[in-house]
Amino acid sequence: MFVDVAQVAGWVSATLALAGAAVVLLVLAVGVVLLSRVIAARREEALHQDIQAQRIDIERREQRLAERESRLDSESARLDAVARELATADEERREALERTAGLTGEQARRELLSQVEHEARLRAAALARDIEESGRAEAETRARRVLATVVQRMAAEATAEASVAVVHLASDDLKGRIIGREGRNIRAFEQITGVNVVIDDTPEAVVLSCFDPIRREAARITMEALVADGRIHPTRIEEAHERALAEVEARARQAGEDACLEMGITDLHPELVLTMGRLRYRTSYGQNVLAHLVESGHIAGLLADELGLDRAVCVRAAFLHDIGKALTHEVEGSHATVGAALARRFGESEDVAHAIEAHHNEVEPQ
Protein backbone atom coordinates (compact mmCIF):
# COMPACT_ATOMS: atom_id res chain seq x y z
CA MET A 1 0.00 0.00 0.00
CA PHE A 2 1.40 3.31 -1.08
CA VAL A 3 0.90 6.59 0.82
CA ASP A 4 0.47 9.77 -1.10
CA VAL A 5 3.16 12.09 0.23
CA ALA A 6 1.33 15.18 -0.94
CA GLN A 7 -1.79 14.12 0.84
CA VAL A 8 0.14 13.50 4.04
CA ALA A 9 1.77 16.88 3.73
CA GLY A 10 -1.68 18.46 3.35
CA TRP A 11 -2.90 16.70 6.48
CA VAL A 12 0.15 17.85 8.42
CA SER A 13 -0.27 21.40 7.19
CA ALA A 14 -3.95 21.44 8.13
CA THR A 15 -3.13 20.02 11.55
CA LEU A 16 -0.50 22.67 12.15
CA ALA A 17 -2.89 25.38 11.01
CA LEU A 18 -5.53 24.14 13.40
CA ALA A 19 -2.97 23.99 16.20
CA GLY A 20 -1.82 27.58 15.44
CA ALA A 21 -5.39 28.81 15.45
CA ALA A 22 -5.97 27.07 18.76
CA VAL A 23 -2.89 28.76 20.22
CA VAL A 24 -4.06 32.18 18.97
CA LEU A 25 -7.49 31.61 20.44
CA LEU A 26 -5.91 30.55 23.72
CA VAL A 27 -3.76 33.69 23.81
CA LEU A 28 -6.78 35.85 23.03
CA ALA A 29 -8.76 34.16 25.75
CA VAL A 30 -5.98 34.72 28.27
CA GLY A 31 -5.75 38.41 27.18
CA VAL A 32 -9.49 38.88 27.57
CA VAL A 33 -9.37 37.36 31.05
CA LEU A 34 -6.47 39.59 32.08
CA LEU A 35 -8.15 42.71 30.64
CA SER A 36 -11.36 41.86 32.45
CA ARG A 37 -9.44 41.52 35.71
CA VAL A 38 -7.71 44.91 35.16
CA ILE A 39 -11.02 46.60 34.39
CA ALA A 40 -12.61 44.98 37.41
CA ALA A 41 -9.69 46.08 39.61
CA ARG A 42 -9.97 49.65 38.39
CA ARG A 43 -13.71 49.69 38.93
CA GLU A 44 -13.19 48.30 42.40
CA GLU A 45 -10.57 50.99 43.13
CA ALA A 46 -12.86 53.78 41.83
CA LEU A 47 -15.72 52.39 43.86
CA HIS A 48 -13.47 52.26 46.90
CA GLN A 49 -12.43 55.88 46.41
CA ASP A 50 -16.04 56.96 45.98
CA ILE A 51 -17.03 55.11 49.13
CA GLN A 52 -14.09 56.71 50.95
CA ALA A 53 -15.15 60.20 49.80
CA GLN A 54 -18.72 59.55 50.89
CA ARG A 55 -17.44 58.30 54.25
CA ILE A 56 -15.38 61.51 54.71
CA ASP A 57 -18.39 63.64 53.75
CA ILE A 58 -20.58 61.74 56.19
CA GLU A 59 -17.98 62.20 58.92
CA ARG A 60 -17.88 65.94 58.25
CA ARG A 61 -21.65 66.16 58.38
CA GLU A 62 -21.67 64.18 61.59
CA GLN A 63 -19.07 66.57 63.02
CA ARG A 64 -21.18 69.61 62.05
CA LEU A 65 -24.24 67.97 63.56
CA ALA A 66 -22.27 67.29 66.72
CA GLU A 67 -21.15 70.92 66.87
CA ARG A 68 -24.71 72.09 66.30
CA GLU A 69 -25.96 69.76 69.01
CA SER A 70 -23.28 71.18 71.31
CA ARG A 71 -24.42 74.73 70.58
CA LEU A 72 -28.03 73.72 71.08
CA ASP A 73 -27.10 72.12 74.37
CA SER A 74 -25.33 75.31 75.45
CA GLU A 75 -28.31 77.43 74.39
CA SER A 76 -30.65 75.03 76.16
CA ALA A 77 -28.53 75.30 79.29
CA ARG A 78 -28.63 79.10 79.05
CA LEU A 79 -32.39 79.07 78.60
CA ASP A 80 -32.71 76.71 81.55
CA ALA A 81 -30.66 79.14 83.63
CA VAL A 82 -32.89 82.02 82.53
CA ALA A 83 -35.96 79.95 83.34
CA ARG A 84 -34.56 79.25 86.79
CA GLU A 85 -33.87 82.95 87.32
CA LEU A 86 -37.41 83.78 86.25
CA ALA A 87 -38.77 81.10 88.53
CA THR A 88 -36.71 82.52 91.40
CA ALA A 89 -37.95 86.04 90.67
CA ASP A 90 -41.52 84.78 90.49
CA GLU A 91 -41.07 82.99 93.79
CA GLU A 92 -39.71 86.14 95.38
CA ARG A 93 -42.68 88.06 94.05
CA ARG A 94 -45.09 85.52 95.49
CA GLU A 95 -43.29 85.67 98.83
CA ALA A 96 -43.55 89.46 98.79
CA LEU A 97 -47.26 89.21 98.08
CA GLU A 98 -47.64 86.70 100.87
CA ARG A 99 -45.95 89.14 103.24
CA THR A 100 -48.45 91.76 102.25
CA ALA A 101 -51.22 89.38 103.18
CA GLY A 102 -50.63 90.37 106.78
CA LEU A 103 -51.67 93.94 105.92
CA THR A 104 -55.17 95.30 105.90
CA GLY A 105 -57.14 95.00 102.72
CA GLU A 106 -56.74 98.69 101.96
CA GLN A 107 -52.99 98.61 102.60
CA ALA A 108 -52.53 95.50 100.45
CA ARG A 109 -54.55 97.11 97.69
CA ARG A 110 -52.51 100.31 97.82
CA GLU A 111 -49.20 98.43 97.82
CA LEU A 112 -50.28 96.25 94.93
CA LEU A 113 -51.49 99.26 92.97
CA SER A 114 -48.26 101.09 93.75
CA GLN A 115 -46.19 98.17 92.49
CA VAL A 116 -48.26 97.83 89.33
CA GLU A 117 -48.11 101.58 88.76
CA HIS A 118 -44.34 101.58 89.23
CA GLU A 119 -43.87 98.78 86.70
CA ALA A 120 -46.23 100.48 84.26
CA ARG A 121 -44.33 103.75 84.59
CA LEU A 122 -41.03 101.99 83.96
CA ARG A 123 -42.36 100.29 80.85
CA ALA A 124 -44.01 103.49 79.63
CA ALA A 125 -40.82 105.47 80.22
CA ALA A 126 -38.76 102.90 78.32
CA LEU A 127 -41.25 102.91 75.45
CA ALA A 128 -41.39 106.71 75.40
CA ARG A 129 -37.61 106.89 75.41
CA ASP A 130 -37.36 104.52 72.47
CA ILE A 131 -40.00 106.46 70.54
CA GLU A 132 -38.36 109.78 71.40
CA GLU A 133 -34.90 108.61 70.33
CA SER A 134 -36.24 107.17 67.10
CA GLY A 135 -38.27 110.30 66.40
CA ARG A 136 -35.37 112.58 67.25
CA ALA A 137 -33.03 110.72 64.90
CA GLU A 138 -35.56 110.87 62.06
CA ALA A 139 -36.40 114.51 62.79
CA GLU A 140 -32.74 115.52 62.82
CA THR A 141 -32.18 113.82 59.49
CA ARG A 142 -35.17 115.53 57.91
CA ALA A 143 -34.33 118.86 59.54
CA ARG A 144 -30.77 118.77 58.25
CA ARG A 145 -32.06 118.08 54.75
CA VAL A 146 -34.73 120.79 54.88
CA LEU A 147 -32.46 123.42 56.42
CA ALA A 148 -29.68 122.65 53.97
CA THR A 149 -32.16 123.15 51.13
CA VAL A 150 -33.28 126.46 52.62
CA VAL A 151 -29.71 127.73 52.91
CA GLN A 152 -28.98 126.70 49.32
CA ARG A 153 -32.07 128.52 48.09
CA MET A 154 -30.98 131.66 49.89
CA ALA A 155 -27.70 131.47 47.96
CA ALA A 156 -29.27 131.45 44.50
CA GLU A 157 -27.16 132.50 41.53
CA ALA A 158 -27.49 136.13 40.48
CA THR A 159 -29.14 136.47 37.06
CA ALA A 160 -29.92 140.17 36.97
CA GLU A 161 -27.61 142.87 38.25
CA ALA A 162 -27.47 146.63 37.77
CA SER A 163 -24.73 147.47 35.29
CA VAL A 164 -25.13 151.25 35.04
CA ALA A 165 -24.58 154.26 37.26
CA VAL A 166 -26.13 157.69 36.75
CA VAL A 167 -24.23 160.90 37.44
CA HIS A 168 -26.46 163.95 37.82
CA LEU A 169 -25.29 167.25 36.33
CA ALA A 170 -25.99 170.79 37.41
CA SER A 171 -26.85 171.66 33.81
CA ASP A 172 -26.72 170.16 30.35
CA ASP A 173 -23.90 172.58 29.47
CA LEU A 174 -21.53 170.21 31.27
CA LYS A 175 -22.20 167.48 28.70
CA GLY A 176 -20.20 169.38 26.10
CA ARG A 177 -17.26 169.77 28.46
CA ILE A 178 -17.41 166.05 29.30
CA ILE A 179 -17.31 165.20 25.59
CA GLY A 180 -14.51 167.67 24.94
CA ARG A 181 -13.18 168.98 21.64
CA GLU A 182 -13.71 166.31 18.98
CA GLY A 183 -14.62 163.82 21.75
CA ARG A 184 -11.16 163.94 23.31
CA ASN A 185 -12.33 164.00 26.94
CA ILE A 186 -14.96 161.26 26.66
CA ARG A 187 -12.53 158.95 24.84
CA ALA A 188 -9.87 159.56 27.49
CA PHE A 189 -12.40 158.94 30.26
CA GLU A 190 -13.54 155.64 28.74
CA GLN A 191 -9.97 154.49 28.13
CA ILE A 192 -8.76 155.37 31.64
CA THR A 193 -11.77 154.07 33.60
CA GLY A 194 -12.76 151.12 31.40
CA VAL A 195 -16.45 152.09 31.32
CA ASN A 196 -18.76 153.31 28.58
CA VAL A 197 -20.13 156.86 28.86
CA VAL A 198 -23.65 157.32 27.50
CA ILE A 199 -24.67 160.93 26.84
CA ASP A 200 -28.13 161.25 25.33
CA ASP A 201 -31.20 163.43 25.61
CA THR A 202 -31.71 162.56 29.28
CA PRO A 203 -31.76 165.96 30.97
CA GLU A 204 -28.92 166.79 33.35
CA ALA A 205 -27.62 163.23 33.55
CA VAL A 206 -24.78 161.08 32.25
CA VAL A 207 -24.95 157.28 32.31
CA LEU A 208 -21.88 155.13 33.02
CA SER A 209 -22.18 151.52 31.84
CA CYS A 210 -19.91 148.64 32.95
CA PHE A 211 -20.43 145.09 34.21
CA ASP A 212 -17.53 145.38 36.66
CA PRO A 213 -19.00 147.07 39.77
CA ILE A 214 -15.60 148.25 41.04
CA ARG A 215 -14.75 149.97 37.77
CA ARG A 216 -18.24 151.44 37.59
CA GLU A 217 -18.03 152.83 41.11
CA ALA A 218 -14.55 154.29 40.55
CA ALA A 219 -15.76 155.88 37.31
CA ARG A 220 -18.79 157.37 39.08
CA ILE A 221 -16.60 158.92 41.78
CA THR A 222 -14.22 160.20 39.09
CA MET A 223 -17.02 161.77 37.04
CA GLU A 224 -18.59 163.42 40.09
CA ALA A 225 -15.20 164.86 41.10
CA LEU A 226 -14.60 166.24 37.59
CA VAL A 227 -18.06 167.75 37.36
CA ALA A 228 -17.70 169.34 40.79
CA ASP A 229 -14.26 170.76 39.94
CA GLY A 230 -15.21 171.91 36.46
CA ARG A 231 -11.78 171.21 34.97
CA ILE A 232 -12.13 168.30 32.57
CA HIS A 233 -9.18 167.20 30.45
CA PRO A 234 -7.22 163.90 30.07
CA THR A 235 -4.59 164.68 32.69
CA ARG A 236 -7.22 165.75 35.19
CA ILE A 237 -9.27 162.66 34.42
CA GLU A 238 -6.31 160.38 35.14
CA GLU A 239 -5.54 162.14 38.45
CA ALA A 240 -9.16 162.00 39.58
CA HIS A 241 -9.41 158.34 38.63
CA GLU A 242 -6.34 157.37 40.67
CA ARG A 243 -7.83 159.06 43.73
CA ALA A 244 -11.17 157.35 43.06
CA LEU A 245 -9.54 153.90 42.88
CA ALA A 246 -7.78 154.49 46.19
CA GLU A 247 -11.06 155.66 47.74
CA VAL A 248 -12.98 152.62 46.46
CA GLU A 249 -10.33 150.22 47.79
CA ALA A 250 -10.29 151.96 51.18
CA ARG A 251 -14.08 151.79 51.39
CA ALA A 252 -14.04 148.14 50.36
CA ARG A 253 -11.41 147.21 52.94
CA GLN A 254 -13.33 149.06 55.66
CA ALA A 255 -16.56 147.35 54.63
CA GLY A 256 -14.83 143.95 54.75
CA GLU A 257 -13.36 144.64 58.18
CA ASP A 258 -16.73 145.80 59.53
CA ALA A 259 -18.43 142.66 58.19
CA CYS A 260 -15.77 140.38 59.72
CA LEU A 261 -16.14 142.18 63.04
CA GLU A 262 -19.89 141.64 62.97
CA MET A 263 -19.34 137.93 62.26
CA GLY A 264 -16.77 137.59 65.05
CA ILE A 265 -14.07 136.55 62.56
CA THR A 266 -10.67 137.99 63.43
CA ASP A 267 -8.22 135.80 61.52
CA LEU A 268 -9.37 136.22 57.91
CA HIS A 269 -6.53 136.82 55.43
CA PRO A 270 -6.26 140.54 54.44
CA GLU A 271 -6.78 139.68 50.76
CA LEU A 272 -10.01 137.89 51.62
CA VAL A 273 -11.10 140.84 53.77
CA LEU A 274 -10.57 143.20 50.81
CA THR A 275 -12.33 140.82 48.42
CA MET A 276 -15.31 140.56 50.76
CA GLY A 277 -15.44 144.35 50.99
CA ARG A 278 -15.61 144.64 47.20
CA LEU A 279 -18.91 142.76 47.35
CA ARG A 280 -20.34 145.93 48.87
CA TYR A 281 -20.61 147.14 45.27
CA ARG A 282 -22.27 143.98 43.97
CA THR A 283 -25.99 143.16 44.07
CA SER A 284 -27.84 139.88 43.56
CA TYR A 285 -31.62 139.69 43.25
CA GLY A 286 -31.74 143.33 44.31
CA GLN A 287 -29.84 142.66 47.55
CA ASN A 288 -26.35 143.85 48.35
CA VAL A 289 -24.13 140.75 48.23
CA LEU A 290 -22.05 141.69 51.28
CA ALA A 291 -25.23 142.29 53.30
CA HIS A 292 -26.52 138.91 52.06
CA LEU A 293 -23.34 137.19 53.28
CA VAL A 294 -23.56 138.81 56.71
CA GLU A 295 -27.19 137.73 56.94
CA SER A 296 -26.26 134.20 55.84
CA GLY A 297 -23.56 134.05 58.52
CA HIS A 298 -26.04 134.98 61.24
CA ILE A 299 -28.56 132.39 60.03
CA ALA A 300 -25.86 129.71 59.82
CA GLY A 301 -24.86 130.41 63.41
CA LEU A 302 -28.44 129.96 64.61
CA LEU A 303 -28.85 126.75 62.63
CA ALA A 304 -25.55 125.40 63.95
CA ASP A 305 -26.71 126.01 67.52
CA GLU A 306 -30.00 124.22 66.87
CA LEU A 307 -28.38 121.24 65.13
CA GLY A 308 -25.38 120.89 67.44
CA LEU A 309 -22.85 121.62 64.70
CA ASP A 310 -19.57 123.54 64.80
CA ARG A 311 -20.79 127.13 64.95
CA ALA A 312 -17.49 128.77 63.94
CA VAL A 313 -17.10 126.62 60.82
CA CYS A 314 -20.74 127.07 59.79
CA VAL A 315 -20.63 130.85 60.23
CA ARG A 316 -17.34 131.13 58.35
CA ALA A 317 -18.53 128.95 55.46
CA ALA A 318 -21.83 130.83 55.11
CA PHE A 319 -20.09 134.22 55.34
CA LEU A 320 -17.62 133.30 52.57
CA HIS A 321 -19.86 131.20 50.34
CA ASP A 322 -20.39 133.91 47.68
CA ILE A 323 -16.91 135.46 47.81
CA GLY A 324 -16.25 134.24 44.27
CA LYS A 325 -18.82 136.74 42.95
CA ALA A 326 -16.22 139.47 43.47
CA LEU A 327 -13.96 137.79 40.88
CA THR A 328 -16.29 136.31 38.25
CA HIS A 329 -15.66 139.34 36.01
CA GLU A 330 -11.93 138.59 36.07
CA VAL A 331 -11.64 134.77 36.32
CA GLU A 332 -13.36 132.04 34.31
CA GLY A 333 -15.61 129.66 36.20
CA SER A 334 -18.64 129.77 38.46
CA HIS A 335 -18.49 131.87 41.59
CA ALA A 336 -18.61 128.69 43.71
CA THR A 337 -15.50 127.12 42.18
CA VAL A 338 -13.68 130.46 41.96
CA GLY A 339 -14.49 131.23 45.60
CA ALA A 340 -13.34 127.78 46.79
CA ALA A 341 -10.02 128.15 44.95
CA LEU A 342 -9.53 131.61 46.48
CA ALA A 343 -10.31 130.30 49.98
CA ARG A 344 -7.81 127.44 49.65
CA ARG A 345 -5.16 129.82 48.30
CA PHE A 346 -5.39 132.02 51.38
CA GLY A 347 -5.41 129.26 54.00
CA GLU A 348 -9.06 128.50 54.70
CA SER A 349 -9.83 125.01 56.01
CA GLU A 350 -10.97 122.29 53.63
CA ASP A 351 -14.38 122.19 55.36
CA VAL A 352 -14.94 125.86 54.57
CA ALA A 353 -13.55 125.58 51.02
CA HIS A 354 -15.71 122.52 50.30
CA ALA A 355 -18.83 124.27 51.60
CA ILE A 356 -18.15 127.19 49.24
CA GLU A 357 -17.53 124.83 46.32
CA ALA A 358 -20.57 122.63 46.94
CA HIS A 359 -23.23 125.19 47.88
CA HIS A 360 -24.77 124.97 44.40
CA ASN A 361 -24.15 121.20 44.10
CA GLU A 362 -21.49 121.68 41.42
CA VAL A 363 -19.56 119.11 43.44
CA GLU A 364 -21.13 116.44 45.63
CA PRO A 365 -21.67 117.81 49.18
CA GLN A 366 -19.98 115.74 51.88
TrEMBL record:
GO terms for cellular component: membrane. Pfam families: HD, KH_1, RNase_Y_N. Residues 289-366 form the HD domain. SMART domains: KH. The chain crosses the membrane at residues 12-35. GO terms for biological process: mRNA catabolic process. Residues 72-99 form a coiled coil. Keywords: Coiled coil, Endonuclease, Hydrolase, Membrane, Nuclease, RNA-binding, Transmembrane, Transmembrane helix. InterPro entries: HD/PDEase_dom (IPR003607), HD_domain (IPR006674), HDIG_dom (IPR006675), KH_dom (IPR004087), KH_dom_type_1 (IPR004088), KH_dom_type_1_sf (IPR036612), Ribonuclease_Y (IPR017705), RNase_Y_N (IPR022711). One of its GO terms (molecular function) is endonuclease activity. This is Ribonuclease Y. It comes from uncultured Nocardioidaceae bacterium.
